[in-house]
Design a protein that fits this description.
single chain; alpha+beta; four-stranded antiparallel β-sheet; 14 strands; globular
Length: about 325
């Protein structure tokens, strides 16, 4: 597993930083050649290296992923990674997880918002001839890693060896080993509705205490609590993904960027299916009463060795 870790894009494994920028690009609807796209993408490593040198202590990393739509255009001689597909739209009742356009995804992490912005600005310019930047979301650490509804986010994230085992692909061919599958959704909070709820109900919705971030006892926690409905189990054992979520926005509009890494997208999609679909008793993830998904896209994040081989000048 350590060999896989050395192959991976470092940002897929490291902890979330104080600032993060999430960029979604859609390839232009025109005749693009492989060389056109590769020439544009090959500018990115140099941009990252130059800006990283401005402040080595900022802990800058840039993680890049590609969609099922982009893959055959970028890598016509390679098969798709085994489980790479378009994010499946999901609907049940009033709840909706849309599937939205996204071909190239960049996650820029560091301790400095200004350096993240520089990487985003120059990356957008480098790709402007082949792709449109359709979304640029600047996320940040809020209080003690809380989301904007004031609960700690990412408490159950795997660490150390468990994180490597949860995130990195190790059962595909050598081309894709050390990569990861990524699902990205942007949520908007229905803040006023949430604020109207008493703390006791909010805690039942999330499944944890608000102040101390302690999981509720099974006797207290409803079936429809978020941490019940989002949990994935196989043969009675919990299977984890690695969430690098970050809150974003301002007092007018804000929410959470869900950024989930896993060795298989089926884990994340199972979690989302359990959340959105009401069971035989009509129970679904009640957190979805207070947040709304606006985007949804899936990517494969290849290993760093793959990126170096294809795009490093």
């Amino acid at each position: 597993m350590n060999e896989l870790a050395s192959m991976a894009q470092i940002g897929a494994l490291t902890d979330p930083t104080t600032h993060a920028e999430f960029l979604t690009f859609v390839l232009k609807d025109q005749w693009l050649t492989v060389d056109d796209i590769n020439d544009a993408l090959s500018q990115l490593p140099g941009i990252q290296k130059s800006i990283r040198q401005k402040d080595p202590s900022a802990n800058i990393s840039v993680t890049i992923g590609f969609s099922a739509n982009a893959w055959p255009l970028l890598f016509p001689d390679l098969s798709l990674p085994a489980e790479l597909h378009v994010f499946p739209e999901m609907t049940d009742g009033a709840r909706h997880f849309p599937s939205t356009a996204g071909d190239i995804f960049l996650m820029v992490k560091s301790e400095r918002k200004d350096l993240n912005f520089q990487i985003a600005k120059y990356s957008a310019k480098a790709l402007s001839g082949v792709a449109d930047l359709t979304e640029d979301i600047q996320g940040y650490k809020y209080l003690d890693n809380r989301d904007m509804i004031d609960f700690v986010d990412g408490t159950e994230n795997p660490i150390d060896e468990e994180r490597l085992e949860s995130v990195l692909v190790d059962d595909e061919n050598d081309t894709y080993r050390g990569g990861s599958y990524l699902v990205v959704q942007r949520y908007i909070d229905r803040q006023s509705l949430w604020d109207d709820q008493p703390t006791e109900h909010q805690e039942k919705v999330v499944g944890r205490t608000k102040m101390d971030d302690i999981e509720l006892d099974d006797e207290e926690k409803p079936v429809w609590a978020h941490n019940n409905k989002s949990k994935v189990e196989i043969d009675g054992e919990e299977v984890k993904m690695y969430r690098q979520n970050r809150p974003y926005g301002n007092a007018i509009e804000h929410g959470t960027m869900f950024v989930g890494f896993s060795k298989t997208p089926s884990i994340i999609e199972t979690s989302l299916t359990q959340m959105i679909n009401a069971d035989e008793n009509g129970d679904y993830d009640r957190l979805l009463d207070f947040v709304e998904a606006k985007t949804g896209a899936s990517y494969f994040v290849p290993s760093q060795s793959f990126i170096d081989a294809h795009f490093d000048d």
